[in-house]
C-alpha cells in the first residue's frame, strides 16, 4: 500500500513539474525583457546627455527587437505581445519607429508595452519633456 501511495505521489509530481517549469520560464522571460528594455531606455538618455548628440532607440515591432545605436539588438521573447507608441516624426516604416533622446535630457516621448499571454503586463513610458523612464502596470482588457 505504501508503495502505491509513493508511486501516486511521484506520478503527480511528474505531471505538475513541467507546468510549473513553463510558468517559471515565462515569468523569467517577461521580467528579463522588462528589465532589459528599461535599461536600454535609460542608457540611451544617459548616452545622449554625455555625448552631446541625440540617441535613437529603434523599435521594430515586426522583427520584435529594440536597438540602440551600434549595440546588439534586444530581442523580445515570442510569448510576449509588444505594443509601442512614438512620435510621428520618428516612425520610419510600418511598425518601425524610435524614441529619440536629446542632450538636454528631453526626448520625443513614447511608450513600449510588454504584455504577457494572460493579458497583464508592463508599459515603459518615456516622458517627452524630461526624458524620464517610468513603469506602469497594464491590466488585462
From TrEMBL:
Keywords: Cell inner membrane, Cell membrane, Membrane, Methylation, Transmembrane, Transmembrane helix
Domain General secretion pathway GspH: 33-128
Superkingdom assignment: Bacteria
Keyword Membrane: yes
Primary localization: membrane
GO biological process: protein secretion by the type II secretion system
UniProt KW Transmembrane keyword: yes
Cellular component terms (Gene Ontology): plasma membrane; type II protein secretion system complex
Localization (cell): Cell inner membrane
Lipid bilayer topology: Single-pass membrane protein
Family listed: Belongs to the GSP H family.
This protein's name: Type II secretion system protein H
Organism annotation: Ectothiorhodospira magna
Lineage, top ranks: Bacteria, Pseudomonadati, Pseudomonadota, Gammaproteobacteria, Chromatiales
Amino acid at each position: 500500500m505504501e508503495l502505491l501511495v509513493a508511486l501516486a505521489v511521484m506520478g503527480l509530481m511528474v505531471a505538475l513539474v513541467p507546468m510549473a517549469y513553463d510558468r517559471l520560464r515565462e515569468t523569467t522571460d517577461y521580467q528579463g525583457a522588462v528589465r532589459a528594455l528599461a535599461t536600454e531606455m535609460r542608457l540611451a538618455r544617459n548616452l545622449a546627455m554625455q555625448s552631446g548628440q541625440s540617441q535613437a532607440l529603434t523599435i521594430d515591432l515586426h522583427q520584435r527587437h529594440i536597438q540602440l545605436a551600434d549595440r546588439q539588438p534586444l530581442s523580445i521573447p515570442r510569448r510576449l505581445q509588444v505594443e509601442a507608441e512614438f512620435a510621428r516624426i520618428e516612425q520610419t516604416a510600418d511598425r518601425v519607429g524610435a524614441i529619440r533622446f536629446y542632450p538636454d535630457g528631453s526626448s520625443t516621448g513614447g511608450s513600449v508595452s510588454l504584455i504577457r499571454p494572460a493579458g497583464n503586463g508592463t508599459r515603459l513610458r518615456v516622458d517627452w519633456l524630461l526624458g524620464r523612464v517610468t513603469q506602469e502596470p497594464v491590466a488585462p482588457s
